[in-house]
Amino acid sequence: MLFRRVPAAILVLCLIPLGLSSCLARRRAFARTGGKPTQPLLVADRSALVDIMARQYEAIHDFNATVDMVPALGSAEKSKITEYKDVRAYILFRKPGGIRLIGLYPVVRNKAFDMVSDGTNFKLYVPARNRFLVGRNEIDQPSENKLENLRPQHFLEALLVQPVDANRDKLLLENFTDEDNAFYILHVVHLNGGGQLQLDRTIWFNRYNLTIARQLIFDTAGNILTDARYTEWRPYDNLVFPKHIEINRPHDEYAVVIDIVKMDINKGVSDDKFVLDQPEGTTLQVVGQAPAPSPAPARPAPPRRKKKS
Q1: 3 state SS for 266-300
Q2: What percent of the chain is predicted at pLDDT more than 90?
């Protein structure tokens, strides 16, 4: 008979499911980063994620934030990182590109740095070094002095995720969901001067609430310029903003962790808040050039001799 020719191993495999019971099968719940085991994942398409980015960016015209900072110098590649804890700072922003950061030393709260940018150029005052640096936001050649690589614009790019440029950007959507992760990743690419596709940045969305969880910004060679991560989204003046932000600039070998203490959004920031003049007696340095020599102190004039009568 035909059924007798079926190999015994195949017959056993076919009969196994019929004998399975609850004692042989186990269900388990698992929690991914940013969610609970029973929390359902949200579903969104590419256009919905683009709209989330645009609404978030367009809703904020200015802000004035008090934050706690943990700056760090070094890199993971070199296995050496130095952190500076308990730095209080103030961040002021106004569209289109005005941003100012003022940092205070721990405990004594003296000014550690003061830097400002208009979107094109920047100024940086470092009292401890009696140095006043000026230059353009773009870094053509990174400096070995990490201080010279600081740019207010780097913070702005990380704090406010720019919307997609429909005339320039092409988009690819990735659903990165497994037992440990639940993200939509929007890959932003464009054609470079040679007509080749170039990765510009990736924006990660948490699938539990569709908030932005991470942004990676790349250079033309595909190296990471900025790695920014966002958690604890909370309402400030009826607009949600991440309370905890981690910014890493691996190529420039510095990073900073920001925790918002207080934040006012869309309450106005006046012009004078973005004015930073060179303090008297400081050394001016144009980034990319050698520092100008400090002026020699004036010698007192010799005493005049009295004429003999």
Answers
A1: CCCCCHHHHCCCCCCCCEEEECCCCCCCCCCCCCC
A2: 53
H-helix or E-strand containing 83?
strand 80-83
Query: Using an 8 Å Cβ cutoff, are 163 and 58 in contact?
Result: yes
Q: Which of 277, 270, 281, 295 has its CA nearest to residue 134?
A: 277
Q: How many CB atoms lie within 10 A of CB 78?
A: 8
CA distance 88 to 156: 18
Strand partners, 100: 92, 116
Using CB atoms within 10 Å of the CB of residue 250, give its burial: 0 to 12 exposed, 13 to 18 middle, 19+ buried: middle
Q: Is a pLDDT exceeding 80 seen at residue 4?
A: no
Q: What count of other Cβ atoms lies within 10 Å of the Cβ of residue 105? A: 16
Cα(275)–Cα(270) distance, integer angstroms: 10
DSSP string spanning 188-213? EEEE-TTS-EEEEEEEEEETTT--EE
Alpha helices in the chain (DSSP H): 8-19, 46-59, 152-159
Residues 205-230 have pLDDT tens digits of 999 999 999 999 999 889 999 999 99
